[in-house]
Design goal:
Blueprint lengths: L1 H8 L7 E5 L2 E4 L3 E3 L2 E5 L5 H4 L5 E6 L5 E6 L29 H14 L4 H9 L11 H13 L6
Parallel strand pairs: 2-4
Antiparallel strand pairs: 1-2, 1-5, 3-4, 5-6
Length: 157
């Protein structure tokens, strides 16, 4: 699931993450962080943890604190041996990696929208590779990333 979310968002899997499901934390670390026990996500079966209608939290980049509420709308049997995932719909662009969390991203969006020609906005755009449209959701790019991930064995290499 982590690899699917990373591919769909266009992020680079550069930070720690965890899933908070039914009062338990699952991540790559097996042990504790602070007061929280972390169970090894590689030993957990997603099919045994989630069901249709369930909500859970995916947190990425503990420094920036991106918390995503995930709602399981439907579960279907995979049509292929490796499984598949695809994006049906979305809205807005994903925040760029290492942008500083939701508060910093909000400030960046304000600068890009209210004063797009000032130096700060130009610096942000330069940092993002020259252009960034926060309103653009690119379904084709997200699905292409998921296809590459499936072809490569879902990040297991």
């Amino acid at each position: 699931m982590h690899h699917i979310i990373q591919a769909a968002f266009g992020w680079t899997d550069s930070h720690l993450h965890d899933f908070q499901i039914d009062g338990k934390n699952y991540g790559k670390l097996d042990g504790t962080i602070g007061k929280e026990e972390i169970l090894d996500e590689r030993k957990a079966k997603l099919s045994g943890l989630i069901h249709a209608g369930q909500r859970f939290v995916y947190e990425y980049d503990f420094g920036d604190g991106w918390q995503h509420d995930v709602i399981v709308e439907q579960i279907e049997d995979a049509p292929e041996p490796m499984g598949s995932a695809f994006i049906i719909d979305g809205a807005r662009a994903c925040p760029p990696e290492d942008v500083g969390g939701s508060w910093a991203y909000g400030e960046i969006l304000t600068a890009l929208q209210s004063t797009p020609h000032n130096q700060q906005a130009k610096d942000f755009l330069s940092w993002f590779g020259g252009s960034f449209d926060p309103e653009l959701f690119d379904n084709r790019t997200a699905n292409a990333a998921l296809s590459r991930l499936a072809w490569n064995g879902w990040g297991q290499k």
